[in-house]
Structures are given as structure tokens and as C-alpha cells.
Design brief:
It holds the Pfam family tRNA_m1G_MT. The chain is built from eight helices and nine strands. It has about 260 residues and is of the alpha/beta class. The strands form three sheets. It has a five-stranded parallel beta sheet.
């Protein structure tokens, strides 16, 4: 996969040289290139922003440097079709694990890191001729710029590429892989500062351990992210799953999981 990132703070993306993503770059699994938007300016001050039409606080990123930068990225694209341009924005669709899996199937991703009050909207309209443009949000909060979001998204997508994570099985059992949060994990010693581990993990009974972990997924999800359980299709759940969920106050109504009202 090729990934291009355009930013006025290219040094912000230096963290992508570390850990598994950095190793993936070294091994040739990920062709990741960072571009300085200011190198596409034409004035002596390398200006990338100006005051907004209509007034208001803050500055808006100028369209021409972005057009030149994105045209350069598009011209160098190895993709057969249009590459995907992701624009981090609190006004975008929320980034999810499902979206990460979808993006991992693409051959070329580009990221446009906005700053200030954002990028002139005409840039996104123009870029739609060259890219599949997708404004994407990390969540319902505002950051100073898109770089933090890009770090998170590149890591979430990059680790799904074949060969990046050493043990592919670990991708199957983690949070959100099946719509639930991950179960708690433990390591040696079995007794630490007076705290033991669940006895079932010492039983050697793999079926019991698997069901324990599944039950813990339901318990943790119900406690921390009940929104993930509401509406879960009952057809994907076993009898043991339904029994565990019933203890947490969930029943099946019209084929979907529903929280029982508290009495």
C-alpha cells in the first residue's frame, strides 16, 4: 500500500518511523511519504492561510497550495482507479474498525492535514475529480490539526496489512473485531500483590476458557459501551451468549438484542 500525507508540520509524522509501522516501511510493506504543504506555495513567505470570506475568527487554508500538492500526489499514484483522499475533520464520518478494514483494501491512501479553521471547501470539490474524497472524524471533539488523527488512522489501517503484525490471530481477538470490546488479559505471576487471576484460566479447559472470555466481552461491553450491544443481530449469538447477556439484562426482541428496562 502507498500512503501520502500532506501537512504543514511534516515533522509531526515522524512517529510513523517507529514500532510496527516503521518496520513495515523498512520492509517495503508500506510505502509512506510525507509532503510539506509549504513547498507548494509560490510567495516568499510560504503563506498557506488567509482570512475567511464572510468574516469570523481564525484563518482558512488557501486553495492553490493544496491543489498543487494534491495534483502531485495524484500524478504519482500507483492505483488503477482513483486513490482515496481522507480529510480529517470533526464534520466527517466517524472512523471505526470497519472503516479501517475497508481502507486496508485500498492500494493508495492520501491524507490532507488541515489546520486553523480548515481547508477552503473548493479544494475538496476540485479534488473529487482526482480522488475518492472522504472527510473522516476520530470522534466528537476538535483537535488543532489533522496530524494526530492521521497518526491514529495510519496505524489502525497499517496494522491490518498482511505481514505487519507478527501474529495475525491477535487481530481477530481484539476490541471491535467482532463488534465487542476485548476481554481482560493476564500474565505471570498468577498472584500479584494479593490479586489472583480467574481460576478458569488455570483449568486447561479450552472450551471453558473461550466461553469465559466471551462472557467477559459481553460484561465489559455492557458496562463501557452499551451502544455496541443494542441492536446486535440475535442470529450471530449462541445459546451460551444469550444466557450470558440475559444475566446482564439483555433480551431478544424481534430478532435483535435489546436492553430490558430497569424495574
Amino acid at each position: 500500500m502507498r500512503i501520502d500525507v500532506v501537512s504543514i508540520f511534516p515533522e509531526y509524522l515522524a512517529a510513523l518511523d517507529l514500532s510496527l509501522i516503521g518496520k513495515a516501511r523498512q520492509d517495503g510493506l508500506l510505502d509512506l511519504r510525507v509532503h510539506d504543504l509549504r513547498s507548494y506555495t509560490t510567495d516568499r513567505h510560504r503563506t498557506v492561510d488567509d482570512t475567511p470570506y464572510g468574516g469570523g475568527a481564525g484563518m482558512v487554508m488557501k486553495p492553490e497550495p493544496w491543489a498543487l500538492a494534491l495534483q502531485s500526489v495524484s500524478d504519482a499514484s500507483p492505483a488503477d482507479g482513483r486513490p482515496v483522499l481522507i480529510v480529517p475533520s470533526p464534520a466527517g464520518a466517524v472512523f471505526t474498525q470497519q472503516m479501517a478494514h475497508e481502507l486496508a483494501e485500498e492500494s493508495h491512501l492520501a491524507f490532507a492535514c488541515g489546520r486553523y479553521e480548515g481547508i477552503d471547501e473548493r479544494v475538496l470539490e476540485w479534488a473529487d475529480e482526482l480522488f475518492d474524497v472522504r472527510p473522516v472524524s476520530l470522534g466528537d471533539y476538535v483537535l488543532n490539526g489533522g496530524e494526530v488523527a492521521v497518526l491514529a488512522m495510519v496505524e489502525a489501517v497499517g496494522r491490518l496489512l498482511p505481514g505487519v503484525v507478527g501474529n495475525p490471530a491477535s487481530l481477530v481477538e481484539e476490541s471491535h473485531s467482532d463488534g465487542l470490546l476485548e476481554y481482560p488479559v493476564y500474565t505471570k505471576p498468577s498472584d500479584w500483590r494479593g490479586r489472583g487471576i480467574p481460576e478458569v484460566l488455570l483449568s486447561g479447559n479450552h472450551a471453558r476458557i473461550a466461553q469465559f472470555r466471551r462472557d467477559e466481552q459481553f460484561r465489559r461491553t455492557a458496562q463501557r459501551r452499551p451502544d455496541l450491544l443494542e441492536g446486535l443481530p440475535a442470529g450471530t449469538l449462541s445459546k451460551a451468549d444469550l444466557a450470558a447477556l440475559a444475566q446482564l439484562g439483555y433480551v431478544v426482541v424481534d430478532g435483535v438484542l435489546t436492553r430490558q428496562p430497569e424495574k
